[in-house]
Design brief:
Blueprint: E1 2-8, E2 20-27, H1 30-43, E3 47-50, E4 56-58, E5 63-70, E6 75-78, E7 81-85, H2 90-99, E8 102-103, H3 118-121, E9 124-125, E10 128-129, E11 134-141, E12 146-151, H4 163-166, E13 171-179, E14 181-182, H5 193-199, H6 209-222, E15 245-246, H7 248-262, E16 271-272, E17 278-279, H8 282-288, E18 300-302, E19 310-312, H9 318-336, E20 345-347
Parallel strand pairs: 2-5, 3-5, 4-20
Antiparallel strand pairs: 1-2, 6-7, 7-13, 8-14, 9-10, 11-12, 11-13, 15-17, 16-17, 18-19
């Protein structure tokens, strides 16, 4: 294992923000990951896990403990079963599944980060989420000190949430297994209206896998959601806030605030979320509360391409970013009575 002290963490995150770690360890095998975790736990040392760094907001003071960078590699394809080491680059894994003619994750193309992070966040976009294809997660259980295999029904997947996110100090994801579909080179049925329009098909249609992937990549790039070192709109964590899911009573109150603020003819986005609940759009809320694309005067601003992304324009600090996030949260709450929840994990700081 590679070990560094007083090591910069900002270069390991897509925000390019945050102070140093007292100690940074890079593990390239499952055994090294487990050994590093056990060492930290036995010594009572705070532990920070880093994969692709696409969902982290690290404080300017850094992390006073051991940061473990999971850089494991391994892709195994057996028929329609895909197994990925936690450190595999997710976008590469999606491309590989498409090349193999397997459907199920093609609309998750372009999402930055590592494969091991996907079950934690139940990563999803454009009508797909990994909970639909994950069959098992192999993880190190810090409580029992053993490596365990958790079947899908024990992962407690829900919208951008899972058992792993609910109890972040317990499990360290080592490998993820997916069951994909051989549809003769075609995609899964296209669910997301924006993707269907871009492809010129109806919702529910199947299209060639490569076409679905390319369409999603173009849509994401147009919103600054595909990493590009030269484009500060991509110096972000993607969507900074989750889409609110409201009870019937909460949605009625929200609807009334919309009519009061924007007029009787304005209808907010509304999508059935089960159990009588309704999901609305965080991006819509932010925009209608007055935080439009490019908003901000400092080094941290809303993306010029997408209101849901907060970005580092090159000289920002984490505190600059958090100040902007707090301003957006307060503005949306004042306008519509809804409190936005941040999607990235915060380290040493909070909103």
């Amino acid at each position: 294992m590679l070990e560094l002290h007083d090591a910069p963490l900002a270069p390991l995150t897509t925000f390019r923000l945050g102070g140093p770690a007292a100690r940074l360890v890079t593990a390239t095998t499952d055994a090294e990951v487990v050994a590093a975790v056990r060492e930290a736990d036995d010594a009572g040392t705070p532990l920070l896990l880093i994969g692709g760094g696409s969902n982290l907001v690290i404080g300017d003071k850094g992390f006073d403990g051991t940061a473990l960078r999971i850089a494991t590699r391994g892709v195994e394809l057996r028929g329609t079963t895909l197994e990925l080491a936690a450190g595999e680059v997710w976008t590469d894994a999606v491309a590989r599944s498409v090349e193999a003619g397997l459907a199920g994750i093609e609309c998750l193309a372009g999402i930055p980060g590592s494969a091991g992070a996907t079950p934690i966040q139940n990563v999803g976009a454009y009508g797909q989420e990994v909970a639909s294809t994950i069959t098992e997660v192999i993880a190190y259980d810090r409580r029992s000190g053993e490596t365990v295999t958790l079947p899908k029904d024990e992962c407690a997947f829900s919208y951008r949430h899972s058992r792993f996110k609910a109890d972040p100090a317990r499990y360290v994801v080592l490998r993820v297994r997916f069951e994909l579909e051989d549809a003769g080179g075609l995609s899964a049925p296209v669910k997301y209206p924006e993707v269907a329009r871009a492809l010129g098909v109806e919702a529910g249609d199947r299209v060639p896998l490569a076409g679905a992937r390319e369409s999603v990549l173009k849509l994401r790039a147009g919103k600054g959601m595909v990493l590009d070192p030269e484009d500060h709109d991509t110096w972000s964590a993607g969507s900074f806030f989750t889409n609110p899911i409201l009870t019937e009573e909460e949605f009625a109150a929200f609807h009334a605030r919309v009519r009061e603020r924007l007029g009787d003819g304005v209808e907010p986005p509304a999508y059935a979320a089960g159990d009588g609940r309704t999901k609305t759009s965080a991006a819509w809320l932010i925009d209608k509360a007055g935080f439009t694309k490019g908003y901000g005067a400092g080094p941290a601003r809303i993306s010029t391409k997408h209101t849901l992304a907060l970005t580092n324009r090159g000289e920002a600090t984490t505190e600059d970013l958090l100040a902007l996030a707090r301003e957006v949260v307060a503005g949306v709450r004042e306008a519509f009575g809804i409190t936005l929840v941040n999607e990235p994990v915060t380290v040493g700081v909070s909103l």
